[in-house]
Amino acid sequence: MIIFSYNFLQIFFFPIFFVIALLRIIFNKENLKSFNQKVLCKYNFSELIEFDHLIHFSSIGELNSINYLVENLSTKKIILSCSTLSSYNLAKKKYQNHIVIFLPLDFRWNVIKFLNHTNIKKIIWIDSEIWPNWLTISKRKKIRNILINGRLSEKSYSRWKYFSSFAQLLGDQYSLIFAKSLDDKKKYENIFKKNVFHFGNLKFYQKLNLINDKKKIVCFASIHKEEFEKVLEIIKCLHLSSIEKIIIIPRHINLSSKLQSMIKQNYKNKIFIIDKFGENDLAYESSKLTFMGGSLFEHGGQNPLEPLSKGSFVLSGKYINNFKEIYTDLENLSLGKVLNEDNSKEISSEMNKYINMKINNHKAIQNYFDLNAKQLKLIIDKVEKC
Question: Which fold has domain 28-198?
Answer without folding.
Answer: Rossmann fold (3.40.50)
